[in-house]
Amino acid sequence: MTNCPECGHPLARGSLLCPHCGAVLSPPEEKAGANKQVPKARKAWRTILLGLLAVLLFVGVAGGAIYAGLYYGERDRETQRLAVLDEHYAAGIQALNEGRFERAAAEFEYVLQLDAGHKLAQQGLAEARARLAVKPTPTLEAVQSLTEQLLQQARDAYAAQDWVATARTLTQLRALDATFAQQQVEEMLFKSLYNAGIAFLEEDSLEFGISYLDQAIALRPLDADAVNRRNVAARYMDALNYWGVDWVVCIERFEALYASDPYYKDVGQRLYQAHLAYADYFAAQGEMCPAELQYAKALRLYADPAVDQKRDTAAQTCLVATPAPLIGDSPQLTPQPVPGFTMGRLAYPVYNSTTGVYDVYALFPDGRILRAAAGADQPWWERGTGRMIYRDRGTGGVGMVLPEEGVPLQLLTPRSQTWPTLSPDSLRTAYAAPNENGVWTIYIANTNNTGEPWVLAAGWGPAWGPAGVLAYTGCDEAGVCGIMLDQPDDDQPVARLTNNEVDTAISWAPAGNLLAYMSNVTGNWDIFLLNTQGGVQQVTTSAADEGLPVWAPDGSRLAFVSNRDGNWAIYVMQYDGQNVQRILDLGASYPGWENQRLSWAP
Length: 602
Fold this sequence. Notes:
By secondary structure, the protein is α+β, with helices and mostly antiparallel strands. The chain has helices spanning about 30-95, 100-115, 120-135, 145-160, 165-175, 180-200, 205-220, 225-240, 245-260, 265-285, 290-300, 305-320, and strands at about 1-5, 10, 345-350, 355-365, 370-375, 375-380, 390, 400, 410, 420, 430-435, 440-445, 455-465, 470-475, 480-485, 495, 505-510, 515-520, 525-530, 535-540, 545-550, 555-560, 570-575, 580-585, 600. The chain has a seven-stranded antiparallel β-sheet with strand order 10-11-12-13-14-15-16, with no helix packed on it. A four-stranded antiparallel β-sheet has the order 5-4-3-25, with helices on one face. A four-stranded antiparallel β-sheet has the order 6-7-8-9, with no helix packed on it.
């Protein structure tokens, strides 16, 4: 037994720390050397562990580099392989035109050895073999008589607009005697190949159409329209060749085609289905982050509640996952921004064909698209928060929701309220509803549901401005209707700024000096700008419908809906109507869109 040298407290033998005063004790002399070895051993183990971590890091980086090298090397080899295919396919077409059918068949067969699924080579080989089967083998004395017979057969087929028979007959004739009626034969052959190619494209027989147009190109250049139609069909077939084989390349090709020609055949639906298939593939592998991205991209093309549910499920799983980013062209783990949409958040209604009502979605600058509320429309963002209010079609009241959480809150009890809009301080809600006589009326109510709503004026479509002024469509005491301005908190008379009851869907500029609205005074719906001090400017002038304008948070642009491209979509443009850009598709059906609303907030 020893005592602590600091406080004198008794200590057990071998103690290194005094339990009474906490003093650190020196070890006995005979064990000092042994204790000195412990730190050295620990340092040695630490060095070994750090070395192992360095080796693992090096292996990981080297492995990634090797993988990337293999990936890009494989893509380079694939590019070279495609170039060889194109070269021999073109040689086959040239031989087919020159009547060298054996050579043409050999070229197409070689292409098929490299790519058994090459549709154009399959068609070319079938054509070469068909012409070999009927290739005449006359004596020299019979050549002249046979060429005349073939030319007459070709003329008859040409007159009957049997372009395929004409092309085959003339090709046989040229194989017999390339100089016989050369100018007439080449003119008829070109036109028959051209017309056959265009006809096959119109019938959706794309392989045949491309093959015949390629034979025509070998004779002389095509006009710009035919070249474009041939190239678009070839791009479509090229993308389709990767269907179910390589979704990355397939989506890449369909995206490029969709960007240049969104209404070519079913390219939009194909791209949508490709995103879904790729997303389902990732989901089956447990890779929920890239699956979420692909579901989100699909939803940008077409809104579908079932797909939205899949995206929600993938997003929730992705939040707690720790996936590693993939190399190369495979999808990133975060949503991709929508070109043309760079700020704030946009709320918009999408018609749900399954339920027959609208759902409200929210788009964010990072590309996220959330379904904010089901069975809802006419959204309005609350200033200074992430919440929005909307018309609840299920209850007939007004709801509020934070899209990220998706938990709805009943804001106003059911009363058939429409176009709910919040005051700048969010303490009051203005909305329109029929009164006891069925007259549309603007009401104002407290958002906390205290007190009774009070009547402001007859009207509809209210929109509260940043300075507390309420704009709506209504009529003055003289019965003249248009856009009205009223400050609910003063006793000043209401100001009427326009003179037509179809001036509606009002949106305030952030500065509070301009209003955007839509009207069909021109015969179709167009967008107009209105200065609160007076003066109107028409912004859109196309024959299509454009409406539901809403200002960007910085006042530089307007978002609006239109069917200018055949289907409904959301567009953005400068407030003077320039630089129009399509950002979201809404589908072919958008019933009752005139009573909807967009909302764009910081």
